[in-house]
Amino acid sequence: MRLHFRSKRLLRFIFVSFLLFVFVVYYYLFAVASKDLPIADHLKKKNIDKASSLLSTSPSPVVERYKEQPVHYNVHVFYYPCNGRCKRWPQGQHNPPDDIGANFYPSLGPYSSRDPAVIENHMIQIRSAGIGVLGMSWYPPGLSDDQGIPFDDLVPLVMDAADKHKLKVTLHIEPYKDRNSKSMRQWIKYIIKRYGSHPAFYRMRKGTKELPLFYIYDSYQVTDWKNLFDPSGSETVRNTELDAIYIGLLVQPKHLQELAADGFDGVYTYFATDGFTYGSSQKLWPVIAKQAQDLNLLFIPSVGPGYIDTRVRPWNPTNSRDRRNGTYYTNSFRTAISTKPSVISITSFNEWHEGTQIERAVPRTYKSYTYMDYAPHKPDYYLTLTRQLTSEYATVSSGSN
User: With contact defined as beta carbons under 8 Å apart, do 289 and 281 qualify?
Assistant: First the structure.
């Protein structure tokens, strides 16, 4: 009797030990290991399963059919990587993941561009929209703006993913510390040496040459560009391995003449707020296009779906532009098309804190705040609309050739 009792105790001990072992293994695999997922840095544990489903490479039937869509390399979209614990999400004293510094909420949540699945998803979205080129925000190695962490080392990751989907990448050179013609020449040399041989590195035909193209944001802040872009300049890149198509930012009327005199190849307008600057005043685009042509400058109008940044700049409602269910974007795009430009740029794919994104957004409420979304349309509405508008542009462009 006592021996039988001991046997039952032994069996019970073995059974309990087995359950404990299963629990430990389960906890390690699914609770502890999940902490190593890059996206887990930006999402609460309860949202990891949801995030995984959102990172599917087939977010909608529209995106699943993207391979049927042509790629338009004369349509560029400004793209912003968000490295590591990106400061853009909490910008404006917010507390991610539920509370972010943006008026819309991304379908991927407050993501990190360190996550290859995020980059893959982005490339699929961009390709589905018919866009051919990413204008990737760029700072030199070790540098960034005050809202981020250096991300030059993300360029290869983005280029590899872009190439997989037949996309190209150019760089949108930001106003890094102590930027001038001499330092710019150094960094252009770095860019071309490090990335110029990558199959996704964007080049555009100029005469008989295929040259890189670079956007230079806030170009008006530098006064010695002529040294770099004039053929007789002391730091000239012309007719060297650093020659490229250099595009300066048009803000004020005088910038057209100044950029031409400094040897720039073209101008872009960037801002998605119609009327915010001279360059972004869409009613003036036909006049600006003619003036640019007379100065032998490319005119690259920048279109956008709208603008709102009141979650990070509550004092700035004046510059908000309502999307009007896509009407604002459509009007902006068609005004750009009417100027018959060689390139149209889009502001932006994912500048969320300024509300200019065409990336997928989802409905979301956090406490008393309800994020804006694309209702009554689906989360990928602006990707679909972009595809339609790029097709219109392609039709007009082919008809004018």
Answer: no
Q: Examine the pLDDT at 54 and tell me if it is beyond 80.
A: no
DSSP 287-335: HHHHHHHHTT-EEE-EE-S-B--TTT-TT-GGG-B--GGGHHHHHHHHH
What's CA 78's distance to the chain center, in Å? 5
Task: Give percent above pLDDT 70 in the chain.
Answer: 81
Q: Are the CB atoms for 267 and 248 separated by under 8 Å?
A: yes
Alpha carbon dihedral 146, 152, 153, 159, in 10-degree steps, equals 130
Tell me, rounded to whole angstroms, the distance of Cα 292 from its chain centroid.
27
Burial of 397 (0-12, 13-18, 19+ CB in 10 A): middle
**Model confidence pLDDT, tens digit, residues 180-189:** 999 999 999 9
Residue 307 pairs in a beta bridge with: 321
Euclidean distance between CA atoms 135 and 150, whole angstroms:
17
- Name 215's bridge partners: 172, 247
Cis omega (within 30 of 0) for bond into 314? no
pLDDT at 36 exceeding the cut of 70: no
Tally of residues, the chain? 401
Could you check whether the bond before residue 199 is cis, i.e. omega within 30 degrees of 0?
no
Q: What is the pTM of this model?
A: 0.85
Torsion 258-262-263-265 (CA) sign: negative
